[in-house]
Design goal:
The complex is a heterodimer of chains A (248) and B (267).
Chain A: E1 2-6, H1 10-34, E2 41-44, E3 47-51, H2 55-61, H3 67-95, H4 98-101, H5 107-118, H6 133-157, H7 163-168, H8 172-200, H9 202-210, E4 212-216, H10 239-247
Antiparallel strand pairs in A: 1-4, 2-3
Chain B: H1 11-46, H2 56-72, E1 109-112, E2 118-120, H3 122-126, E3 130-138, E4 144-153, H4 154-160, E5 183-187, E6 194-198, H5 199-202, E7 207-213, E8 216-217, E9 227-230, E10 244-248
Parallel strand pairs in B: 1-10
Antiparallel strand pairs in B: 1-2, 3-4, 4-7, 5-6, 5-10, 7-8, 7-9
Classes of the chains: A mainly alpha (248), B alpha+beta (267).
């Protein structure tokens, strides 16, 4: 038997889908800015594994000589990014959604198991909770990274007015470096997130748009377990009652 | 979790599928409208006028950011200073307004304020209190260098020559901020490079009329005989080879702001 199960609240879906293009534009405009002083690399001492970025990468993307444009876009969209992020955090706290999102003492062990499963090194399925341990860690870390981008961003945007903050982050150039690597972190997050969404399939993706997932449950047995009562509306099912039996 | 049963859907499951289809249609429609609205907003935001300037909505946002920054700006807040032995010579970046054939010996500074226009010689500026500071010179491109500068505070210059107020008295940003004119404009002798600054930043203690760098008189390429150095703005405001300085209520034109950069450029 199938039924619809509420998964993502409307507010969270809005925050998510607003953040997606906004963060994209922040990274893109950040790249336009970064080009003007593109000094970072992966390497050790004199050995350089990779420079960010080779000229042909910049040229292929059409980045060169767009610093002014990049700065103005960055300082417009920073407002959307920060406000959307702050409202999201306030919402998750007030609504209690944070309980699903914030890792607990079991999350880290579970996250390792999830990663092993996803790498096909372990057969046991992740728990069928809304967010498993790996997701909790990832979705909480990315919010902390957002806070980090805000703080390092302020430190390089107004390094005199917030000189104490810039100093706390190691100085102007260190703050810039930190701001850059946080942006690189979002790109890494996005790649893994995209792969996981592709792997999880249509039902899961549709859940982030509609809020609902179709789940298959076994029909209630004749012995009649008390917790498995059929809801009055057969098509929808509130998350709280439906999930209790799965969590147990 | 979602196994696909091979047997035909039961009546119940068909109802579930129908309900899901309805929700999907509605949600993706809303998402499509949202995406279209977002795209229209993007077009509105990025359609640029003729010339190199910014699109008006972006310019207005930068001006909003400027207002916010000004309301937070405090003239007692200092840029960090460093030991002089950390200083080095900053790289050269841009030659606008610095043509060859300029003679620093015949140079005088044109000053336009509330009263009559006048000219000031370099010796007059050197007679003002001598200030030495080692600060991080921050280019809008993202690099920065620690540089040692010597010069006279622009605020001391304005006080000595009674500039920057509407009634021709010495400026006093703490007790009589309302008497100040709003801006200072500076340009090279040939007018090839020009910057505008808000008055609080111009009167900041770390804004100098600078004549020495690293303990040596300014070289030609670093703006001899007199340049501006300010630690509260990106380097593009630290104009080299000042020819004229104007205290005004009208927002002065600014070379890089005309080319799409933020006019305020405050740090």
């Amino acid at each position: 038997m199938r039924r619809l199960e509420k998964k993502h609240p409307l507010a969270i879906r809005w925050f998510h889908w607003i953040n997606f293009p906004v963060l994209f534009l922040m990274i893109w405009s950040g790249l336009l800015i970064y080009w003007a002083n593109a000094v970072y690399r992966l390497g050790l001492g004199r050995y350089t594994l990779f420079t960010f970025f080779p000229d042909r990468v910049f040229e292929a993307l059409g980045v060169p000589y767009r610093l002014a444009e990049g700065m103005s876009l960055h300082f417009v969209f920073m407002w959307f990014f920060v406000i959307n992020g702050l409202v999201y955090v306030v919402y998750t706290v007030l609504s209690g959604e944070w309980r699903d999102l914030v890792p607990n003492r079991h999350s880290f062990r579970e996250a390792i198991q999830v990663v092993l499963h996803d790498l096909r090194l372990r057969k046991i399925e992740p728990p069928p909770r809304k967010f498993n341990g790996a997701q909790q860690i990832a979705y909480t870390t990315v919010i902390l990274m957002g806070a980090g981008s805000l703080v390092t961003g302020v430190a390089i945007y107004k390094p005199v007015q917030f000189a104490w903050l810039t100093a706390l982050l190691g100085g102007y150039q260190w703050a810039r470096w930190e701001h850059f690597w946080l942006a690189a972190g979002y790109v890494l997050f996005f790649i893994i997130h995209l792969l996981q969404v592709l792997r999880a399939g249509w039902n899961n993706f549709r859940g982030m748009v509609t809020g609902y997932e179709v789940v298959t449950v076994s029909a209630p047995s004749s012995s009649g377990k008390p917790n498995r009562s059929i809801p009055e509306d057969p098509t929808t099912h509130d998350e709280k009652t439906s999930r209790t039996s799965q969590r147990a | 979790m979602t196994k696909k049963p091979h047997e035909p859907l039961s009546e119940h499951d068909a109802g579930v599928a129908r309900a899901m289809r309805n929700k999907t249609r509605r949600s993706f429609l809303v998402m499509g409208i949202g995406a279209a609205a977002g795209f229209a907003g993007w077009k509105w935001l990025t359609t640029r006028p003729e010339g190199g300037d910014l699109a008006p909505p972006q310019r207005r946002t930068l001006e909003f950011n400027e207002k916010l920054a000004k309301s937070y700006f405090n003239e007692t807040r200092m840029a960090p200073t460093f030991p002089p032995d950390m200083a080095r010579e900053p790289r050269l970046d841009g030659e606008e307004g610095l043509p060859a054939g300029f003679d620093p010996l015949t140079w005088r500074l044109d000053v336009v304020g509330a009263g009559e226009a006048r000219t000031v010689a370099l010796q007059d500026i050197k007679r003002l209190p001598r200030v030495n500071m080692t600060t991080e010179h921050k280019c809008i491109e993202g690099w920065s260098e620690i540089v040692n500068w010597t010069g006279a505070r622009l605020s001391d210059f304005a006080a000595a020559y009674k500039l920057g107020t509407r009634d021709g008295t010495s400026p006093d940003i703490r007790d009589r901020p309302r008497d100040l004119v709003r801006y200072v404009g500076l340009e090279t002798p040939d007018g090839g490079y020009y910057v505008g600054m808000d008055m609080p930043s111009a009167l900041h203690p770390q804004t100098l009329l600078c004549y020495e760098m690293g303990g040596e008189p300014l070289s030609m390429e670093h703006g001899a005989p007199l340049r501006l150095v300010t630690a509260v703005k990106y380097g593009l405001k630290s104009i080299k080879r000042i020819g004229r300085i104007t205290f005004t209520d009208e927002r002065p034109r600014d070379f890089w702001a005309e080319r799409g950069y933020d006019w305020y450029a405050g740090l």
